[in-house]
Each structure stands twice: as C-alpha cells, then as structure tokens.
Amino acid sequence: MKHLIDSLSLQYSNYTPECGCDEAGRGCLAGPVTAAAVILPINFTNSVLNDSKKISKKNRAILKHIITEQATSFSIAHVYENTIDDINILNASILAMHKAIDKLHITPQFISVDGNRFKPYNTIPHETIIKGDAKYLNIAAASILAKTARDAFMDKIHDEYPMYNWKQNKGYPTKAHREAIKKYGITKYHRKSFKLLPNQLNLEL
Fold first, then answer.
1. Which residue ranges make up each domain of the chain?
2. Measured between alpha carbons, how far is residue 12 from residues 15, 90, 122 in Å?
3. CATH of 18-158, one of 3.30.420.10, 1.20.120.530, 3.30.565.10, 3.40.50.720
4. Residue % of the chain over a pLDDT of 90
5. Residue 191: its pLDDT value, please?
6. Tell me, what's the pLDDT at 199?
7. pLDDT tens by residue, 13-68
8. Residue 189 neighbours by CB under 8 Å, 6+ apart
9. Could you tell me the CA-to-CA distances from 111 to 37, 68, 100, 134 in Å, in that order?
C-alpha cells in the first residue's frame, strides 16, 4: 500500500478508552445508513489509514482486515430505509452510531464523531469533529468499517435488483440509478422520503 499521508493522531481526547464513530450512506437513494464504532489499542499505528473516501477499494479491504484483527473493540450497525423515512436521515445516522456503540464489548469513556451533529450517548462525553476521519485513526477506522460493511450489503441486494446496478453505484444518486428508477419504479430498499427523481410527481410511490 502506498503511503498517503503522515500517520493521523490516534484519538481526540486523553480519555481511555475512546471510540471513534463514523457512518456511510447518508446521501444514498437506497439501502441503509451504516455506522461503525471502533476502539483502537493505544499503541496502534498505520500510515495509510485515512478517510475511506480517499482510499482505494483494494486498500479499504486490507485496512478492514487490519482493523478487525487489531482493534480492542469494534462494531457495525445498519439502520434501514423505513426508519430513515420515519425519523429522517440525520436522526437515522445518529441512531446507527448509537446502535454501533451499544454493541461494543467495552464501554468507551469518550466518543469522537466525524461531522458536526450527534446526540449524547448516555452520560459519556463526546466531541464532533469536522473531517475527523482525516484527522484521527479511530474515526478513520470507523469510516473504513462502515463503508466496507455498507458496500457489502449493497452488493448483496444488487443480486435481487440488478437493474439498479447497486454493485457499482452503492445506492448513490448517479444518473444511471435515477434512470433505472424512472424506468422500473422503486424497490423496498429505496428511501421514499428522498427526492428520487428531479420531478417527484412522475414517480409512482
């Protein structure tokens, strides 16, 4: 793997353990929003690990293996389309992160979150960090696990509805995805609360 940058800092706070959280799939028209929570060992280093969007698919797969092998604790959670439609994508993203933290087998003493929105998780202190997945290894690790888990889910449901080409677009609003919606309508995996077509009136819900 090519070195992309100097190593990121391990974590945001001086608390131990701290978990990093991130999500994938907020902007998609179909499929779940997926979050991961990761606690890394204090001596963890990796000079390639970064925001999942900056890393090739091949390197994401390698990093996923490294993270799941070496993390002190990690977990992944999906929140599905019906819930996204019920509570909106922001609340669903935060819910996914909370669900991921719920599944950690170690209770973190601090939570660092990529982005600028979060709701308190019990009484554990937290911080939201813009572009945190490009600053801290634990958030970057969470971004890798969330992205790879969600991509695997979209690859699986692609076989059910191949005409939408989710194996390639992962549910994001590409021109081809929108054309397929226009031609075939929507599936149970589409988010009905999202603007699926430029003119929503033409879409049979």
1. 18-158
2. 9, 23, 19
3. 3.30.420.10
4. 90
5. 97
6. 64
7. 999 999 999 999 999 999 999 999 999 999 999 999 999 989 999 999 999 999 99
8. 30, 31, 81, 157, 161, 171
9. 9, 19, 12, 16
Q: What percent of the chain has pLDDT over 70?
A: 94
* pLDDT beyond 90 at 72: yes
Distances in whole angstroms, Cα of residue 193 to Cα of each of 94, 169, 203:
17, 19, 12
Contacts of 58 (CB under 8 A, 6+ apart): none
The CA R_g of the chain, rounded to the nearest whole Å, is 17
Residue 100's nearest CA partner among 139, 135, 66 is 139
Percent helix, strand, coil in the chain (nearest 5)?
40, 20, 40
